[in-house]
Amino acid sequence: MDWEDRLDEWELELDLAARIEGSDWVTLERAAADTGVSRAALRTWYRTGQIPSRLVDGPHGPQRLVPMGVVAERAEASPRLRRSAERRLADEAQLELLRNRVDQLELRLAALERRLPPDTADPADPTDPAVPAA
User: Which domain holds residue 93?
Assistant: First the structure.
């Protein structure tokens, strides 16, 4: 059995144990990825008793697990994480607006190029065969 098989088997065991217990215990890595909380913050939270945690045997030794629901609630209560999420959403919205604007400009450019007479060469386009080579 190689490490990848053992890791897959271990993840299946975790999922099964979570279903049996009716809980949602996940690794620190998954909790960090799903909530945007750093692993360092998660460690601080469980060390100070803000969230529960437990150690289980993993494929590479002991593995720390935390309940996803509790982590999500704690993350939502954090003003810093809320501001970070709002800023990330604002950045994503700004990016989407810029993508939309680029799409509009590309459509305008295509419409303008269609109106040009066919014998008009773009002096800046080196791939245009009508442009003399330097």
Answer: 79-114
